[in-house]
């Protein structure tokens, strides 16, 4: 089966995951990308990209091929497989796949992305990328002077629809509700009603996307009369929601919002140590190739530094010839800081000083859990990596010294 142990594993091969892979490989980390579909993700459905720096015009698949080639240059490995379960509650993370493989990694970057909520009507999947679209910022400019249909009436649908009017000749919004009723906020609704390029078809739904090689129109059903009609158009934008592909993480312990998106900090760190989230599966403002790439770069650099710290701990602490005092503390706690100073003073007065290693529990949750530290300050005494005792907390210098002799 081969060696399934890696420094960095990236779940997902879209622009965020591929960028993280490039940075990981360049940092000489043994890096693996696990992707259940074609490398590139949703970008592969975009006919043309004109807003990625350095590329005046390129197709989504071609841009992703360039990303993949770049990652290959740095020795990144790829596996076409699906992650079905994970165990992140330890230093060596475990990732299990549909093909029965069990990988381990020091750090993991989640880049599994999101996917549009589909209506699954005839023609929708077949014409995706050939007139069927899900992102106005990505694709609106390709419909200059054409007629476009927007499906949905929430904030995203109406606001994106108004953006499309900058390019299209006409935008027709298909709405489930009675005339004048939209699901979006009132300000957007008022602006949309005043937009001369926007029209509305009420009490209706789209039954089918029409066309052979490209979109030629839609079949619409009136929900009150039951009658169907056809409306000519060259594009159909579906805005009925996005779904983050994070179902496999439900039992992982990672904090997610109600929709399944993962909150992170500026380093792309989740609330679990050594686990990062990037791209469309995280809580974010802009979902574009360029912002996804930025996420991937930030996460990979943060993961590299985390792995360096982890390796340093294993070398300088677990393999140390000297006995080690692991001081677990909270930097915001004055009592911890005072105890830390006292411990350093006492240690320097010993004939054979220990090596003192300070562990900030707020950022080193895995180590705190590994050594079952529940209160701070706490001191664990190690001899060649093995725990031999724990010190009783005391601000009395002599009592503390006596425990160390």
TrEMBL record:
CDD domains: TRX_family. Gene3D superfamilies: FAD/NAD(P)-binding domain (3.50.50.60), Glutaredoxin (3.40.30.10). The keyword Zinc does not apply. Residues 311-404 form the Thioredoxin domain. SUPFAM superfamilies: FAD/NAD(P)-binding domain, Thioredoxin-like. Residues 6-296 form the FAD/NAD(P)-binding domain. This is FAD-binding protein. Keywords: Disulfide bond, FAD, Flavoprotein, Oxidoreductase, Redox-active center. It comes from Desulfosporosinus fructosivorans. GO terms for molecular function: oxidoreductase activity, acting on a sulfur group of donors, NAD(P) as acceptor. PROSITE patterns: PYRIDINE_REDOX_2. InterPro entries: FAD/NAD-bd_sf (IPR036188), FAD/NAD-binding_dom (IPR023753), Ferredoxin-NADP_redctase_2 (IPR050097), Pyr_nucl-diS_OxRdtase_2_AS (IPR008255), Thioredoxin-like_sf (IPR036249), Thioredoxin_domain (IPR013766).
């Amino acid at each position: 089966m081969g060696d399934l142990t890696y420094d960095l594993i990236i779940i997902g091969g879209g622009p965020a995951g591929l960028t993280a892979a490039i940075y990981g490989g360049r940092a000489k980390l043994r890096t693996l990308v696990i992707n259940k579909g074609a490398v590139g993700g949703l970008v592969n459905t975009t006919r043309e990209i004109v807003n990625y720096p350095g590329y005046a015009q390129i197709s989504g698949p071609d841009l992703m091929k360039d990303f993949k080639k770049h990652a290959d240059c740095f020795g990144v490995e790829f596996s076409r497989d699906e992650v079905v379960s994970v165990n992140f509650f330890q230093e060596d993370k475990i990732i299990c796949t549909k093909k029965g493989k069990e990988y381990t990694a020091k750090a993991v970057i989640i880049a599994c992305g999101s996917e549009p909520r589909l209506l699954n009507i005839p023609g929708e999947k077949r014409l995706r990328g050939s007139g069927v679209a899900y992102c106005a910022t990505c694709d609106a400019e390709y419909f200059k002077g054409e007629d476009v249909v927007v499906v949905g009436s929430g904030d995203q649908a109406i606001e994106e629809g108004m953006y499309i009017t900058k390019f299209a000749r006409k935008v027709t919004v298909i709405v489930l509700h009675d005339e004048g009723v939209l699901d979006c906020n009132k300000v957007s609704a008022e602006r949309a009603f005043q937009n001369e390029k926007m029209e509305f078809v009420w009490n209706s739904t789209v039954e089918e996307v029409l066309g052979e090689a490209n979109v030629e129109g839609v079949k619409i059903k009136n929900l009150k009369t039951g009658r169907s009609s056809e409306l000519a158009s060259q594009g159909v934008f579906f805005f009925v929601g996005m779904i983050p592909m994070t179902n496999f993480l439900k039992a992982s312990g990672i904090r997610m919002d109600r929709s399944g998106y993962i909150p992170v900090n500026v380093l792309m760190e989740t609330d679990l140590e050594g686990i990062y989230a990037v791209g469309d599966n995280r809580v974010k403002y802009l979902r574009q190739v360029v912002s996804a790439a930025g996420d991937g770069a930030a996460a990979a650099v943060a993961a590299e530094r985390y792995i360096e710290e982890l390796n340093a701990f294993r070398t300088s602490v677990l393999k140390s010839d000297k006995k080690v005092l692991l001081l677990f503390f909270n930097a915001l706690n004055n009592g911890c800081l005072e105890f830390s100073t006292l411990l350093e003073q006492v240690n320097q007065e010993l004939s054979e000083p220990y090596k003192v290693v300070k562990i900030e529990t707020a950022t080193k949750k895995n180590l705190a859990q590994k050594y079952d530290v529940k209160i701070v300050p706490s001191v664990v005494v190690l001899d060649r990596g093995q725990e031999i005792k724990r010190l009783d907390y005391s601000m009395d210098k002599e009592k503390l010294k006596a425990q160390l002799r």
